[in-house]
Specification:
78% of the residues lie in helices and 0% in strands. By secondary structure, the chain is mainly alpha-helical.
Length: 206
């Protein structure tokens, strides 16, 4: 268990596509949006963990078509969010609260970005078996470790959000009166989508 905790913390604090997505959302839309994205990403990651535990990763491993379909759906969703960010009406002012409809949309975005990433499922399928006890049921162990890892990642992602929220006012002042903020957001999301589409089936940070 100690080895799993240490490995999970190291993986969770290593910035990856998920962290970049969350930080960008925080800088663009504020602390509540960032924290909502953290929850959405955590739910999506746990969905991937469940999929790995139930054997979805095995399907991806033997079916390149299934992997590519989900991969390109996820990449397309990121690009869609980048294009949507260019619309002024979709850009929220940074604040400590957000309208309910926006919170639901942000939660949904984080969930789908994480869920539509088959490499995350493969990551769980590769990482978790190293810590399973052969004398105990694999499914229950896998679910327990998956939930623990998601909680650790949720905690570290929350720290990233809080740090980004502190930096946001200064960045807002630097870009005040310009459209730079939403262009940066669009570039990041579209770049993440392109990266997700062209990157190989290795196992990056969740």
């Amino acid at each position: 268990m100690v080895a799993f905790l240490v490995a999970s913390v190291v993986l969770a604090v290593t910035p990856g596509a998920g962290v970049l997505f969350i930080v960008t959302r925080t800088l663009d839309q504020g602390r509540v949006a960032g924290l909502t994205s953290v929850l959405g990403v955590a739910l999506g990651n746990f969905g991937n963990a469940v999929g790995a535990s139930l054997g979805l990763a095995a399907i991806f491993a033997i079916s390149p078509t299934a992997f590519l379909v989900v991969k390109y759906l996820g990449a397309g969703y990121l690009v869609y969010m980048g294009v949507r960010a260019l619309r002024p009406k979709d850009i929220l002012q940074a604040s400590s609260s957000a309208p309910e409809g926006d919170v639901v949309r942000i939660l949904r975005d984080g969930f789908w970005v994480a869920l539509l990433n088959p490499k995350t499922t493969l990551f769980f399928a590769t990482f978790l078996p190293q810590f399973l006890d052969a004398s105990s049921p694999a499914l229950s162990q896998s679910m327990k470790f998956s939930a623990l890892f998601v909680c650790i990642a949720l905690a570290t992602d929350t720290v990233y959000v809080l740090l980004a929220a502190k930096a946001a006012p200064r960045l807002k002042r630097l870009t005040q009166g310009t459209s730079m903020g939403r262009y940066v957001t669009a570039i990041v999301f579209i770049g993440l989508g392109i990266w997700a589409a062209v990157s190989g089936p290795h196992f990056p940070r969740v």
